[in-house]
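Bench notes, afternoon.
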Amino acid sequence: MFAARTAVAAGLGVLLLVGAGAAATRTPGPASAASFITDDQDRALVQHGFSTASSAKNAPGGMPDFTEDQLVQEQADMGTNFVRFLIAWSQVEPSPGVYDQEYLDRVEERVGWYEERGYHVMLDMHQDLWGPGITPEGTNGNGAPVWATYLDGFPVNHHDMWELYYLEPGVIRAFDNFWNTTGAHPELTDHYAAAWRAVAERFADNDAVVAYDLMNEPYGGSLQGPAFEAGPLTAMYQKTVDAIREVDDSTWACLEPQALGFNWGLPSGLGKVADPRDGDPRIAFCPHLYPLPMDLGDGFSGMSRDLVEGTVAAWRSNTLRTAEALGGVPIILGEFGLDTTLPGALDYVDLVYSTSDASGIGIAYWSRDPGSWGPYETDGTPRNLISVLDRPYPRAVSGQLHDWKSDPDSLEISVTPAADASAPTEVYLPSGAFPDGGTVEGGTVVSWDDESRILRFTVDAGDGAQTVTVRPK
């Protein structure tokens, strides 16, 4: 996760808050996402899960501190169906042109845990502060290999707060060399694209892996804003998608905007990426959301609440507008989260989920790590977050899905029915409000699974968008 809590935030805070307010008053974007990632039965998939997990960033072997039993508990407690699983370039390509198949074996084993339980997986090539090579200790950054780290003699001073490293000349230089702003290392993006090709070659035929998140929270170094997004970032995405399509023509490629600014509700200048696959493009937009007041440590109360609500509204508008500009692509909110001990924290989580539901956006909450940001304590004790995330939601919808509205004891889905639907719609219903399943207005129940809490039904035929309502039985 990239956050700008300290000097970055302090230096740009006023400008960004004003900008976020201005963005919120711009002409609204589309009402909801134009499309969704789909399954092999052409059902729209709604992502409800976690980024798993921050503990993988510097772990020996690159795997998160997360067990199969913990996944079983997560699914039972919150009905999750999706994971944004962290991987790292440094693990995939530990030396130039050499791809670690044992590491990919470990990733594949974890993917198998999710596949066995009906999840969909997005592999996220994660980075923060470029990589472990920015300091001799190797513990401050993650993502890029040491061999791909060129500081060119620029310093990297130590900081107690990790976000400040983004301001260090050496870190900026490492990014500048990757994006070839320096003109010295055009080979680095070639290596990055080839590393993704190696990942895609391994997972091309894996039914559980539906998407590749091409880079976590891109940072432009000395080049920022639209010049970075429309230039080097878009070019790197195009090169990477082209490389993936050499071995995998079906998995979706997810594009993130520059984190600095967009995470705070400002617009994106990301350019359109062409998909060389046969058939419709499989490109998605996967931004993050971290309102600036929360990056500065505030909760969701008082003046901060007003500012955060404005940021969320601006973020929604800019997210939908960017997805439209990229070709009407699906949207997944790849990260949002906060310390849930802060005032109003659960209200904020509910706001983001409600906003995403109304916009046709799936979510991977940050993160599955234990502690105050996550759903469990370090000893496995459930935390307050579970009460908000255990909510009714559509998992897979036959027909053209538009949006949905989740209340504790009801679920409304706006969908244009498919005349030739080959599979039923599936929704998840929490045990508290739906102990015996649900009834369906606007559809016909096919089955109810009390263990998985999944209700399956067909949607009644009709012209145009229909509203289907699920209530307790």
